[in-house]
UniProtKB/TrEMBL annotation:
Belongs to the uricase family. Urate binds at residues 62-63, 164, 181, 236-237, 263. It comes from Ilex paraguariensis (yerba mate). It catalyses: urate + O2 + H2O = 5-hydroxyisourate + H2O2. This is Uricase.
């Protein structure tokens, strides 16, 4: 919200961050479904008097926002995607409160996965996985909408089929060129859907959940290549681009994707002493894993017509 106040430009928003909620659903066979969400709400609203005059009469209390998360979770009688929950919550704030013009909801889903015992999916047992499903939704009072989804903390590593050659060499360069190295990263991805209004959201239950699973698979498959031969990576940059391109090529309902792929270095170990010039000689076998410093490589790829 931008306003002019006493000759100055003023922008404000308020909300509640990190509201934690978990929800269980049970099907007719007694099978349980479970999600845990960390919800952050941010409202753009007409409440200038609260800032300039101490008049709170137009304020939606952030405590009320928190309670609303639990009320909406209770109301969801059927299992739903984290995106659909975010959209429903945002819609509530913009339609229920005259003052609220836009609601922005961010949610991080904790990666609870159903356990398998002796090869059988457990009816009510879950263990924590690694990478997280995220979403960010903005809904305006008009029904105009932005939906994006993402992955955080997808750690991927391959022990060969990676190199880095032909880069700029100058007086500060010591890195040798190589066609054989380890490639390790922790992918953060965020992609945008083209739906521009509440009415254009697909009605199919768990549509966004399916897409998340599909996008993750395309990212992983493209990073590694086929199981036997793999695929050569000329750089993190090149692999990132191929991953982004594969997602846009495969899913017409995704309009843009942003990828962040830190280059997590595994340093060759060579040990020597004055008496013993070769204690350990590196032969693509013993590495020193590091996480700092790391290369930071990020890019986004959008269809030309997409509004990023
Ligand atoms: O894939 C890479 N991209 C770089 O930009 C870079 N820079 C570097 O030192 N090593 C690497 N590896």
């Amino acid at each position: 919200m931008a306003d002019e106040v006493e000759g100055l430009r003023f922008e404000q928003r308020h909300g509640k961050a990190r509201v934690r909620v978990a929800r269980v659903w049970k099907d007719e066979n007694g099978r349980h479904f479970f999600v845990e969400w960390n919800v952050s709400i941010s409202l753009l609203s007409d409440c200038l008097p609260a800032y300039v005059r101490g008049d709170n009469s137009d304020i939606v209390a952030t405590d009320t926002m928190k309670n609303t998360v639990y009320v909406k979770a209770k109301e969801c009688s059927e299992q739903l995607s984290v995106e659909d929950f975010a959209i429903g919550l945002a819609k509530h704030f913009t339609s229920f409160y005259q003052q609220v013009t836009t609601a922005i909801i961010k949610i991080v889903e904790k990666p609870w996965e159903r356990v398998c015992i002796d090869g059988q999916p457990h009816g009510h047992g879950f263990k924590l996985g690694s990478e997280k499903h995220t979403t960010e939704v903005a809904v305006k009072k008009s029904g105009a909408l932005l939906v994006s989804s993402g992955i955080e903390g997808l750690s991927l590593l391959k022990t060969t089929k990676s190199g880095f050659e032909g880069f700029i060499r100058d007086k500060n360069t010591i890195l040798p060129e190589t066609r054989e190295r380890m490639l390790a990263t922790e992918v953060s991805a965020s992609w945008r859907y083209p739906f521009e209004s509440l009415s254009s959201i697909p009605a199919k239950p768990l549509y966004f959940t399916e897409r998340y699973i599909d996008v993750k698979k395309v990212l992983i498959d493209t990073f590694f290549g086929p199981p036997k031969e793999g695929v050569y990576s000329a750089s993190v940059q090149s692999t990132l681009y191929h991953m982004a391109k594969a997602v846009l090529g495969r899913f017409p309902d995704i309009s843009s994707i942003q990828l962040k792929m830190p280059n997590l270095h595994f340093l060759p170990v060579n040990l020597s002493s004055k008496d013993n010039p070769v204690i350990v000689k590196f032969e693509d076998d013993v590495y020193l894993p590091t996480d700092e410093p790391h290369g930071s490589i990020e890019a986004s790829l959008s269809r030309i017509w997409s509004k990023m």
